[in-house]
Amino acid sequence: MLINKVSDQIKKSKYISRDLSWLRFNYRVLDQARDTNKSIFDRLKFLAITSSNLDEFFMIRVGSLYNYIDYGKERTDYSGLRELPFRKKLLDYSHRFVNDQYLTYNNELKPLFDKSGFDVLMVGELTELEQKKVDSYFKNTIFPLLTPMVFDNYHGFPLLMNQLLTFGVVTRTEEDQKAQDRLTFVQIPQNLARFYEINRKDKIIFVPIEEIIRWKIKKLFRNVEIVSVNLFRITRNGDFTLEESDDIEADFVQEIKAKLKTRKKGRVVRLEVERNPSAFMMKVLKDRWIIDNANVFTINTLIDLRALWQIINHRQFKDRCFKQPSSVMPRSLPSDSVDLFQYLKEHDVLLHHPYNSMEPVVQLLERAAEDPYVLGIKQTIYRLADQSRVTAALLKAAENGKHVSVLFEVKARFDEERNLKEGDRLEKAGCFVIYGISKYKTHTKMLMIIRKEGEKVTRYVHIGSGNYNEQTARLYSDVSLLTTDEVYAHDVSEFFNVITGHSRPNEYRSLMTSPKGLRNQLIELIRNEARNAKKGLKSGIVIKINSLEDKEVMDEFYKASKAGVPIKLIVRGICCLRPGREDLSENIFVKSIVGEYLEHSRIYYFHNSGDAKVYSGSADVMVRSFDRRIEALFLILNEDLKREAIAILHYNLLDNQNSYIMREDGTYVKKRPAAGEEVVDIHKIFYNRNIYENLDFELV
Question: Any idea which positions bind Mg(2+) (predicted)?
Answer without folding.
Answer: 383, 413
